[in-house]
Amino acid sequence: MASKTGSTPATYSPSPATHKKKRIPIADVDWVRPDSRGFYQCRPAYLRTGAVSPAAGSAYAEFGNTKVIVSVFGPRESKKAMMYSDTGRLNCDVSYTTFATPNRGKGSDKKELSSMLHKALEGAIILESFPKTCVDVFALVLESGGSDLPVVISCASLALADAGILLYDLVASVSVSCVGKNLVIDPVSEEESYSDGSLMITCMPSRNQVTQLIVDGEWSTPKIHDAMKLCLGACSKLGEVMRSCLKDVVTDLKE
Amino acid sequence: MVGLSVGEKNFIKGGIAQDLRNDGRKRLTYRPIYVETGVIPQANGSARVKLGETDVIASVKAELGKPRVSHPDQGKVYIYVECSPTAEPSFERRGGDELSTELSTALERSLLGGKSGAGAGINPASLLIKEGKVCWDLYVDCLVISSDGNLLDALGAAIKAALSNTGIPRVQVREAASSDEQADVDVSDEEFLQFDTSGVPVIVTLTKVGRHYIVDATSEEESLMSSAVSISVNRHGMICGLTKRGGAGLDPSVILDMISVAKHVSEQLLNKLDSEIEAAERANEGEP
Fold first, then answer.
1. Domains in chain B, please, with CATH?
2. According to CATH, what is the number of the domain A35-254?
3. Which of A16, A119, A208 lies nearest to residue B251, judging by beta carbons?
């Protein structure tokens, strides 16, 4: 047993000042991103379906430090729906675990993220294919490493595909942050916290249709043009990665 | 919401295609805006805006608070929208929650800028009293009294008017004995500082009906929309926030076109709104 000296030793707690307090000199063009990516380079994506077996469909996504698991239940009877409706209903819920953020969070669900996820997915689902019933999408952010909502949206559409819900197209989502004069794609939480503006696009790559677009901060029109073009390019690449993930599952089953 | 027969829907859609809406407006014309400031005496600033039949009240209250650890040189602004059941019976209790959250988030996005506080309509650094210790917390509370479409634009205008009516009390900081203690502040009852609202943006919602966009949709027109984009533009023509509402997908070129239309419309709206706010303030001062 290790002997303890005199007074009770203080328990170790990570110093909150491990990340830089001062603003990085953003005007410096040679500024390197924390994970040494290029400005226009997304994080490598790890996507797997079938993570949760009791669910109709599920997916797990890991984009750098952002880890999200989404499970889809349905189409099933909805307790909330009182009225007959000849289109199906979509119910989304996004929540964070208490250990997702560096400071312990309350783990409560975020209503704004749930409604944003709902809007992003509702344009892609063929709601007429499941009248009178409801599809529940539950997203859980296990670790929040920046760009949470885009990862949740992409992972949710993969889970919906895994559940066999009829979709017009997969939904891919990417966000871009404006840090000083530079556009930085797929920001991490550090970059997000000192961003001067952010733009998040959710699109259906094969149809070239934007289902959701959220911009905050100050932007000039040419900048928005550039950011949108950048994001749409990244979305189509992400769409291909998602498609190959789904195909891999089928080829594995065949073997 | 509004129940429309197929015939009525076709009538409205056909009219919009010919640049003629139900109330005689053109596609890019706003309804008459009526602004009244100083409607809530206990608040630091308040305004009531009527856009046709849509009626909203915004009130601004400033309270002393502590800045966030991550941003010690900035004050805090909270925006909250409540949809009153007087507007729609479905808003009673929890019914209006979803719409309230959507509107509050969209307004916060338009007015508070990026995470670092850059590009904000309300400059949070101007709310600071003593770095790291004391700052102003601005609570902007909005109430929707009557809803006839285009709530977001009306709320944006009401907040702009309320902020130009806001007076923040002058504060004198008495040095604390030790730097850890709460700094003592002397809040003056007499002197007030007016808020600078030249940077506050205005929100323009473009609703896509069929192949055309309309500005300032009534609730009938909104029930026909395939999607809507709300763009917040400030005096310098910079886009301060953008939210796409409605589920249908939009082609990216359509969105870029909507942005340029919104910029064009926002100039007229800004000028109209500024003159209305000035007139309302003068009417206020005229009263004894």
1. 6-285 (3.30.230.70)
2. 3.30.230.70
3. A208
